[in-house]
Amino acid sequence: MLRRSIAILQKSLPEGHWYTAMAKSYLAACYAGMSRFENAACLYEESYGVMESRFGSDHPKLVKLREGIALLYRKWGKPEMASRYDPMRATRDEP
């Protein structure tokens, strides 16, 4: 269902639209829940780039997306990648 929705969004919206990116992030979360980590990572990374360009790094939508990506990498056993997206890292790293 999500894949079909994404296909419709891609046909009807401009390339790189944030609605499509959000739909892809929802599909990525589903894949992560099924332990299809590579599929999830590709979709999350693509979504992240679009969302960051559209909203900036501090927007609540991007913070939520980073949480999902960090969770994916923790579940996948890649803590070094998870730390790149940990939304709390920015506040911990500030002087």
Walk me through this protein's architecture.
It is a single chain. The protein has 95 residues and is an all-alpha fold. It has one domain: Serine Threonine Protein Phosphatase 5, Tetratricopeptide repeat, CATH 1.25.40. Helix content is 78%, strand content 0%. The chain contains six helices and no strands. Helix 1 packs antiparallel against helix 2 (18-33). The longest helix is centred in the middle third of the chain and has 19 residues, at 37-55.
Write the layout of secondary structure elements.
Elements: H1 2-12, H2 18-33, H3 37-55, H4 60-75, H5 79-85, H6 89-93
Structure characteristics:
flat; mainly alpha; 0% strand; disordered C terminus; 6 helices; Serine Threonine Protein Phosphatase 5, Tetratricopeptide repeat; 95 residues
Biggest sheet architecture: none
Bin the strand percentage: under 5%
Return the CATH architecture. Alpha Horseshoe
Listing every helix as H and every strand as E from the N terminus to the C terminus, the arrangement reads: HHHHHH
The coarse silhouette is flat
How many strands? 0
Report the structural category: mainly alpha
**Quick one: CATH class?**
Mainly Alpha
First-residue to last-residue Cα separation: 45 Å
Percentage of residues assigned to helices: over 70%
Note the total helix count. Answer: 6
Instruction: Count up the domains.
Output: 1
